[in-house]
Amino acid sequence: MNMKKMRKSVVAAMMLLGLVVAPVAASVSLADDPAPAAAGNAGLTDSATGGAVKEEKKSGPGGFWDVVTGSGTLGVILWLALFLDGAAAIYFIVDCWVLIKPQKLMPQSLINNVQGAVAEGDVMKAIKACESEPSPMANVLAAAFQHVEDGYDVIQESVNAAADLEIERIMQRLTWISVCSNLAPSLGLLGTVQGMILCFATLASGVPDIGALAGNISQALWTTAGGLVVSIPSLTFFYSIRNNANRLILRMAALTMELIKPLRNVEVEPAA
Questions:
Q1: Where are the domains of the chain?
Q2: Which of 11, 125, 131, 172 sits 20 to 30 Å CA-CA off 93?
Q3: Are 130 and 142 within 8 A, CB to CB?
């Protein structure tokens, strides 16, 4: 009997709670959704304020081109610098991508010709093979063959010096990609600072123009985005190409040392 009474009391309490909560939930939902209450007056409101809404849309900030042209002389110069920086980054990326290839650094035909000449003991033929196919590896091998008479230790020193020079030349090209990637965020930050300065100048005028204020903020964000758009791909390509270059340079150095090993026993005949 006690259990039945407890069940009846729980059911009654739940019904009472439902009667209390239902009106409150209905009132909250009506408060959160004012659209039905204002549906009858929507036509009058649109007809009365349609012109004002259109004028407000026209006076607001425009697209990307409006931001560029409306940013003043300094803003236009900044955008021009960003475009030039991006174009330079693309140029150096393509240049290094084409240059830093196995067939460019160490052509297989050069390797075959040098191996054949060294096997025959003809150093002059090996030098001519290097001159006929100019490349970083050809320069290193030529430095080795030109010091054959000075001993193997001098040959190794010449190879190391020539290899360091070729590595420096390759890395100088790659450095320009890094320069472009580091310069772009600085230009974007300068444009951001200019946009914020214009924002505070607009606020200091007393009654700020909302359209002008939004345009200044838009300029600040667009320049930041422009700098990042140039910087992120440039930085990605820089590290990718640099790692590939380091791998190829190590391979070229190992192959060069393998090719000059027979020079320990090569004797050069004096030219007639």
A1: 2-56, 66-265
A2: 131
A3: yes
